[in-house]
Amino acid sequence: MLEIALKGSKRYYGWIAFLLVLIGIGSMAYVNQLMVGLKTTGMSRDVSWGFYISQFTYLVGLAASGVMIVLPHYFHNYKKNKHMVIFGEFMAIAACVMCMLFIAVDVGQPTRMLNVMLYPTPNSILFWDMTVLCGYLGLNLMVGWICLEADRQRLPHPKWLKPFIYTSIIWAFSIHTVTAFLYQGLPGRHYWLTAILAARFLASAFCSGPAILLLVLKITEKFTTFQMPKDAVKTLVKIIMYAMCVNMFFFLLEVFTSFYSNIPGHMHPIIYLFSGAHGHHELVPYMWTFIGFAFLSIALLVTPKLRENHKLLPWTLCILVIATWLDKGLGLVIGGFNPTPFDTITPYMPTGKELLVSMMVYAIGALIVTVLFKIATGVKAEMGHSQALPCGCSTEDFCDCAEKAEAAAEAAATVEA
Amino acid sequence: MKMHYGFPIIVGLGLFIGLLCLPFVIGKGITKEYKQPELKLPANEKECIESKEFMRREHMQLLNDWRDWALRDGKRIYTNHAGKEFTISLQNTCMKCHNNKADFCDKCHTDAGVSPYCWDCHIQPEGLK
Amino acid sequence: MKNNRRAFIKLAGIAAAGLALAPKAMASSGASPVKKNPAGITAKRWAMVIDSTKLHTKEDIAKLAEVCHSIHNVPHIEGNQNVKWIWGAPYAQAFPEQENPHLAEEVHEREYILLCNHCENPPCVRVCPTQATYKRPDGIVAMDYHRCIGCRYCMAGCPYGSRSFNWGEPREGLDLSKLNPEFPTRMRGVVEKCNFCVERLAVGKLPACVEASEGAIVFGDLSDPDSDVRKVLRERFTIRRKPAVGTEPGVYYII
Fold first, then answer.
1. I want to staple C83 with a disulfide (CB 3.0 to 4.6 A). Which of A23, A177, C65, C164 is the partner?
2. Is the minimum CB–CB distance between C104 and chain A shorter than 8 Å?
């Protein structure tokens, strides 16, 4: 099927060339980082993880989120998702690769990374995180590719694949749980030391991930004949809505526990993030933007009229993605390191080079998404699955607009005659 | 049966195989007879930790074991086959006799095209500049 | 004999590559070619008691840090990407959860010497994905800089901020003419920290800071009731940093 990715319009090749340029620019920053060390970043002795690890954390959520399409289809036999599943799986592949790359660019001695496998250490959560991420990548590659190939040959999906599909659904929950364990098992970091972190990670993943996927698919619709079935979108948006509500509910639980118990260690990181401490207010505007956008997105999602407004939906999703990113891709890591073990504040901001390297990783992810989605939409077009109708519906929608249009045309013809 | 695109395929194959073999041809042409590098051996010490042959072949493995014995087991005295004892230390044992990295270590390493990372941390006897 | 020995070492090498267990197996078998230095000093559990009534000025602590950093080739780097094995901090930073607003002014204003606590339950060892950080049988939390991949998980895990990362080339922060030629430097991209002077204990010397402290730091075997540290701990009131996190530090402070 790879050949589908090679045949494309000028615009397709232009986009790929653009991504390659971005990767090229970013890799120069990375080579520089390799040569002189991680001192090119804004990280420090006190804030020893930064933008890279927070992007890794956020993207694990994106990887896990495909399950919100796959699960209804396989566990609830929700047929509307049938032609969406592959996109969830392919997005997970790209997200897994980006996660691994963000880890790779973060370590100080990347050439020694295989030590994690040479000296397997089951008491380290990082070892397990590597294991589950590799496993999830493999599962999605296998399941996605084989299913799409079967579709292309008009064959039913092989039976032996079922156990792997069910495993991958459970596995999706495990990758984000293990990523949360990476943080929540550390004794000295109060902002992370909370049993609800894993649950909150999953909730924020299951709103932000599908939101990103929907946005990317909206763009895909613009450039291909692929059209998402309306009901599938509707269901997914509802899932996003519930997940976001749960995410913010969990956040409020965190705030309650910290402030009602009045335990300084639990309060300090939240105070630092939302009102500043020891004269440092760097993150305050970002964190309040998170709160504002989070509740704005919830308001737009819970109101049925606004939720079903297709013009508004992309904006709602963007707001939600920004909110969850500020929370998990920025505040989470910095709030864990500040206040420091000495109850002081060491501000952190990523440097330009750090952002360039991150841009490289994101561009590689975008390239993988582009190629994989090109293949998937190519197969869908060949098969006539989930294609756009002139009325704006999808062939999976069972709409009557096509008939109506035909009838109208016929009527017009008779009138003219 | 007619071969489609016969000419470019054959030329392409020929080029591919030619390029593949090129290093061997060039190598044979320009490389002179291999000469073993001349090492500067310690002046006042004739015996190394183990036999010359063993050290030549296995010194990297020995250093690996030494590191784990010293760091992880806290056992820093090595008894060689002759019963002689040595303190396990690259800087304080090996390099006290082999007091010139450039004339000893580097000679073979350069020839063999290997760059061990020992000296990223360990301080060579010549000192650092 | 000679051949046997070579075959033995070779086999050990193969086993080490395959299992990474050989050193332990060899050490436990009678045939081990390695042993502890009989001149070294050993303990079941090394510990340190710091008398902050004697050692509490910035100058005194800087002096000890200088001794430690020079023998261990610890680089001096300006800014917040610095590397340090020993440093000083006021009470509020050293014991942030044990503050009280009416603490004796003198105690509050003292400078406390900070270093790796060599915990009984070290979180850094728990989280390290490669066993580059490990706890020795004598309680010292040590590091194998050869194996560290620089993931910095241990820095997130340490509740005491005792670990430093080499963000850049450490030799750029060292006076290369004044290195201690008997000890290595580190390379960029690895984490480092105080090692309780294992290399000195192995040859029968006390840790450098203990030696230079003129009696303000006591060092000894916590499991031996007659040791100096146990004697001091019996007689004086001591506290440890962040007792709530359950790490059981091996460094005690007389207040």
1. C164
2. no
